Amino acid sequence: MKTYSRLQIDNLLKAIVLMLFLFTVAWSIVSLLALGDIWIGRPILLANVVLSLVVGWFFYRSRYHEQFSYDLERLEYRRGAYHSSRRWEEFERVSLVHVGRGQFAVRLYPAAERGGGPVEIPASRLGLDPSGFRFEAMRLVAAARAGAASEATGDEEEGQDEGPAEGGDDAG
Amino acid sequence: MTTDEYLLRLERNLMTGSARWVADFTESFRDYRSGGASFDLMARGGMRTKGLLLSRVFSYLSLPNYQAACLAYTREVNERRLRSLLRAVSRFMREENIDWAWLVLVRTGPFAATVEKAVGGISLREIGVALVDVEARRVVTSPNYVGKRMADHVRCFR
Question: Cβ distance B122 to B129 under 8 Å?
Answer without folding.
Answer: yes
